[in-house]
């Protein structure tokens, strides 16, 4: 294999890294409301604002993924690894779309307002219904744990490829000159 690195396009890379920041922020804010800091208007507003951001960027990612196929499968992955990578990508996209929608529906069902930063208020996604709220609340929690698990597995897989296999997989999503990426990839070989 040569030293040329085939990377994802710039739009894909920017959206990927913005999504990573948003997901971490949403997970920390959500866990903070439940486990550490309690319910506060500021934390709730942050969580909902970031959640809507996650939803918006998830839609952009899915559309971008369909329109821009990317560099293709990483050559050094075997068939099972490719299947796992593809399945986990689909699961990640599904969770990134479903989790914010479940949260929005949950708040709507509780007769709460979906109040975002800057005073922006979203319309109710579903009518007020406490029975629906009681079903959505644990679902939002379970999906949050599932998203955390898939996100952590993604990070662990990238760490394994970068630190153990040293196969240059991460360079496909990094910024910097192609020359630097090629040098890094040649070190990994």
Keywords:
mainly alpha; two-stranded antiparallel ribbon; 189 residues; 5 helices
Task: Describe what you observe in this structure.
With 189 residues, the chain is an all-alpha fold. It has one domain (10-188): Fumarate Reductase Cytochrome B subunit. It contains five helices and two strands, in the order αααββαα. Strands 1-2 form a two-stranded antiparallel sheet. β1 and β2 (121-122) form a beta hairpin. α2 (41-67) crosses α3 (79-109). The longest helix has 36 residues, at 130-165. The protein is elongated, with a radius of gyration of 19 Å.
User: Can you tell me the overall shape?
Assistant: elongated
> How many independent structural domains?
1
Q: Per DSSP, what share of the residues sits in E-state strands of 2 or more residues?
A: under 5%
Query: In CATH terms, what is the architecture?
Result: Up-down Bundle
Are there runs of 5+ residues with pLDDT below 50, and where? none
Percent of residues in helices comes to 55-70%
How many angstroms does the end-to-end distance come to? 9 Å
In the CATH hierarchy, the third-tier topology is known as: Fumarate Reductase Cytochrome B subunit
Assembly level: single chain
| Secondary-structure-derived class | mainly alpha
User: What CATH first level would be assigned?
Assistant: Mainly Alpha
Largest sheet: spatial strand order = 1-2
Give a count of the beta strands, DSSP E runs of length 2 or more. 2
What is the N-to-C order of secondary-structure elements (H for helix, E for strand)?
A: HHHEEHH
Task: Determine the mean pLDDT.
Answer: 87
Number of helices: 5
Rg measurement, Å: 19 Å
Largest sheet: 2 strands, antiparallel
């Amino acid at each position: 294999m040569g030293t040329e690195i085939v990377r994802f396009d710039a739009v894909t890379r920017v959206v990927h890294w913005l999504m990573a920041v948003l997901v971490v922020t949403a997970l920390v804010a959500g866990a903070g409301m439940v486990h550490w800091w309690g319910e506060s208007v500021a934390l709730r507003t942050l969580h909902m604002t970031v959640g809507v951001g996650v939803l918006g960027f998830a839609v952009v990612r899915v559309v971008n993924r369909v329109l821009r196929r990317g560099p293709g499968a990483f050559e050094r992955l075997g068939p099972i690894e490719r299947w796992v990578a593809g399945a986990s990508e689909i699961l990640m996209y599904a969770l990134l779309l479903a989790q914010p929608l479940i949260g929005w529906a949950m708040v709507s069902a509780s007769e709460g307002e979906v109040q975002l930063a800057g005073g922006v208020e979203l319309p109710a996604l579903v009518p007020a219904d406490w029975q629906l709220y009681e079903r959505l609340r644990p679902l939002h929690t379970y999906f949050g744990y599932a998203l955390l698990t898939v996100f952590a597995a993604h990070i662990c897989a990238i760490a394994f490829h970068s630190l153990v296999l040293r196969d240059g997989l991460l360079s496909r999503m990094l910024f910097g000159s192609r020359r630097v990426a090629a040098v890094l990839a040649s070190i990994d070989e």
